[in-house]
Amino acid sequence: MTVRVAVAGASGYAGGETLRLLLSHPGVEIGAVTAHSSAGRTLGSVQPQLAELADRVLGKTSAAALRGHDVVFLALPHGQSAAYARELGSETLIVDCGADFRLRDPAAWERFYGSEHAGTWPYGLPELPGAREELKGSTRIAVPGCYPTAVTLALFPAHAARLVEPEVVVVAASGTSGAGRALESHLLGAEVMGSMSPYGVGGGHRHTPELVQNLSLVAGERVTVSFTPTLAPMPRGILATCSARLRPEALAAGPDAVREAYASAYADEPFVRLLPPGQWPSTAAVLGSNTVQVQIAVDPDAGRLVCVSAVDNLTKGTAGGAVQSMNVALGLPERLGLPMNGVTP
Ligand SMILES: NC(=O)C1=CN([C@@H]2O[C@H](COP(=O)(O)OP(=O)(O)OC[C@H]3O[C@@H](n4cnc5c(N)ncnc54)[C@H](OP(=O)(O)O)[C@@H]3O)[C@@H](O)[C@H]2O)C=CC1
Ligand SMILES: CC(=O)N[C@@H](CCC(=O)OP(=O)(O)O)C(=O)O
């Protein structure tokens, strides 16, 4: 089976990474590639890494250009997806890399995004309990945010097994590509390289409600999340450090019982690698791959579980998660087109 795929937002970081992965996917034929201000330019002039598509000319993103494909990936700024989704029938699988359809709670959407809620689609994190069943056969997929992918996979086994209290603290560092291509290059050079700084501090980041949603669903109770993102001087990667107080019985059971909960949650997951004890995740090790590295430690003095994860924000954190979810939705082998090995050094 070959599916014909269109990518809207092909000139951006998420769209470019989606194309890179799709070019290695044996079940895919690439149809329309569209953009906004770059329409009319060749793909090679804006995505020089995509040698196989260098001569393709970017079309203007429109429903007409996207119609007639089996699958459409939307890698557009927030708020742009709903209009295209309305115009594409349910025979087309739409995989939205943006945030528009991730949240279930309209009030949370309005508070953090400041616009009307467009709706909720099946959530493209196949590793979450029940997610594969929901994604299979679906024609709409909301790809998670990059931080929520990293943090949810670091923490959910602990909540699912009720090892920790429902109050989580997360500090995560992201490479600058997380901000999209629009980030001014002079800011990148002068203010980001050679420095690290937080943003969205104090519960203000829009991924906070997504994290609360994911962890609360798994925990079966409301989980609060104190989330502090930081910008790191590197192009790609997220390193998320998460901690929560262990419930007394989990603390008494000891670190081996905690590790067992993670080992069993991830035993059959192709893209999540629980590292051997003592080895810690690094962004370099997952660069360009769809793999998530996870490690945990029990801090007995603080009574806390510390969970660390690393993902490539553009691969598992966006485009890889999108392609993985497409595979699940279409009933294809889940690993198709998805690298498991990184490119370090
Ligand atoms: N970067 C990341 O790590 C992640 C990104 N995402 C999501 O993916 C989506 C794309 O992000 P990213 O690739 O980083 O962003 P970029 O800024 O790199 O790319 C944005 C893309 O959208 C196009 N575009 C801009 N304005 C419009 C418009 N008004 N109508 C239609 N198309 C438009 C741009 O076209 P042109 O360049 O031709 O103007 C470009 O192709 C966003 O929703 C983002 O939140 C999700 C997870 C992680
Ligand atoms: C470093 C950086 O700026 N990262 C982005 C998150 C990127 C992401 O996941 O995007 P969406 O939720 O927008 O799809 C941010 O903090 O806004």
UniProtKB/TrEMBL annotation:
User: What InterPro entries does the database record attribute to this sequence?
Assistant: AGPR, AGPR_AS, AGPR_dimerisation_dom, AGPR_type-1, NAD(P)-bd_dom_sf, Semialdehyde_DH_NAD-bd
Q: According to its UniProt record, where is this protein mainly located?
A: cytoplasm
> Kind of enzyme, top EC level?
oxidoreductase
Q: What is its EC number?
A: 1.2.1.38
Q: Which UniProt keywords apply?
A: Amino-acid biosynthesis, Arginine biosynthesis, Cytoplasm, NADP, Oxidoreductase
PROSITE patterns in alphabetical order: ARGC
> Can you name a GO cellular component term?
cytoplasm
What role is this protein assigned? Answer: Catalyzes the NADPH-dependent reduction of N-acetyl-5-glutamyl phosphate to yield N-acetyl-L-glutamate 5-semialdehyde.
- What name appears for this protein in its UniProt entry? N-acetyl-gamma-glutamyl-phosphate reductase
Q: Which source organism?
A: Streptomyces cinereoruber
